[in-house]
Amino acid sequence: MTETASVWESSATAAEIAAWLKPKRSVVVVTHGKPDGDALGSSLALVRALNIAAGGSAAGFSGVASRAEAWYAGPMPGWWKAVALDSKCRHFDEHHAPPSSVEPDAVVIVDTGSWSQLLDYRPWIDHQHERTALVDHHLSGNAEVSPRRLIETTAAAACEIMAGLCGRLLGVGSPADLPREVAEPLYLGLATDTGWFRHSNVTPAVMRLAADLLEAGVDHERLIETVEFRDRPGRLRLLSRALGSLELLDDDRIAVMALGEKDFEKAGAHPGDSGGFLDIVKTVETVRVGVLLTELKTPDGVVTKISMRSKGGAGFVDVNVVAQSLGGGGHAQAAGARMVGVRLADAKATVVNALQAALDGADA
Ligand SMILES: [Mn+2]
Q: Which candidate, 88, 98, 91, places its Cα nearest to that of 64?
């Protein structure tokens, strides 16, 4: 189906989507691959609201097939089952493909509208096109994914939009009156997409909704412990080694940390365990840019991975530009590159030079 005139904006109101969903007897909710807190939260909230609205429990209909279920694809966060509990979900990976024969009455796509994030589902969603709706808050997407689009790009999380939709499905005027099983995943998405209420997307509406969801019975402490406080000891040992390597250069404006394969071995850490380390060096007032270099041995020989984070405001450095000069890329405040055949010491000299030049340019 082609809709060449479609633009990335709402084509339906929350009231219209709720009215369209109300009579549906079978609903599949899908979200982007490698789902995060908002993707899981918005999909679980909708599945539970649909099941409760039909007279079932949040999980479904005690032994009978659920009216609604959520489908997930790709790697899942380690905590997802502690949040999904007994809600009806299916998980697809390289061993389990989405069943092409399933034809529900409705499909709702949440927290994305980009084909690039719906890879595994694309043929199936295309086939269901007329039976789909989409709820998203991202700045861009492919409008032709669905004819019924509820898009609010000013919403901090898909869950902020979903709260209104769930209220309509359940005939509840305030989010404070939502069932706890629906309120909890909504709060999860709101909290994780705002960095637990720290990011610049925190608005009065976000805090009012969070307050209402807490009134509905959400256990903030259980959620943050389940989702955030679950690192393995190896990650802390790796952080200790990374901080041991810390150098503050250029009047303490550039913070550089370096890790080698031996550091991961000795710490008993895994490749992904260094995520978030640069957020720690960014907390220092003088630091404008944080850099983490990781030297790895690969079948192609030595590779040095470079990851950079910068802070907004005065003296801002666009690390995407710096990363591109090294053959990589990313975003203005978060970017990286892989330097193949380059040892850590040489990569460090190259990156620091490029960053010094960028900082001097930003000051000029
Ligand atoms: Mn989101």
A: 88
Integer Cα distance of 135 and 156 in angstroms? 13
Q: How far is the CA of 337 from the centre of ligand 1 (A)?
A: 25
Distance from the alpha carbon of residue 200 to the mean position of ligand 1, in angstroms: 14
CATH class given for the domain over 233-363: alpha beta
Distance 152 CA to ligand 1 centre (A): 11
Q: Is the pLDDT of residue 10 over 70?
A: yes
β-bridge pairing 106-110 and 89-92:
unpaired
Strand boundaries in the chain, DSSP class E:
27-31, 68-73, 89-92, 106-110, 132-136, 148-151, 247-249, 254-260, 289-298, 301-310, 329-330, 334-340
Of 217, 211, 170, the residue nearest 190 (C-alpha): 211
Residue ranges of E strands in 25-101: 27-31, 68-73, 89-92
**Closest C-alpha among 182, 146, 192 to residue 35:** 192
Ligand 1 centroid distance, CA of 353 (Å): 36
The predicted-structure confidence for 175-217, as pLDDT tens digits, reads as follows 999 999 999 999 999 999 999 998 888 999 999 999 999 999 9
Q: Just give the CATH number of 14-227.
A: 3.90.1640.10
**How far apart are the CA of 157 and the centre of ligand 1, in A?**
5
Centroid of ligand 1 to alpha carbon of 256 (angstroms): 31
Token pair for residue 270? 């895994």
Tokens standing for residue 173: 């005027």
Spell out the domain ranges in the chain. 14-227, 233-363
Cα(237)–Cα(266) distance, rounded to whole angstroms?
A: 8
* HEC letters along 104-159: CCEEEEECCCCHHHCHHHHHHHHHHHHHEEEEECCCCCCHHHCCEEEECCCCCCHH
Helix axis angle, 37-53 to 180-193, nearest 10°: 160
Confidence label for 310 from pLDDT (cuts 50, 70 and 90): very high
Contact 105, 24 (CB under 8 A): yes
Over residues 73-100, the pLDDT tens digits come to 988 999 999 999 999 999 988 777 788 8
pLDDT at res. 2? 46
Contact 250, 285 (CB under 8 A): no
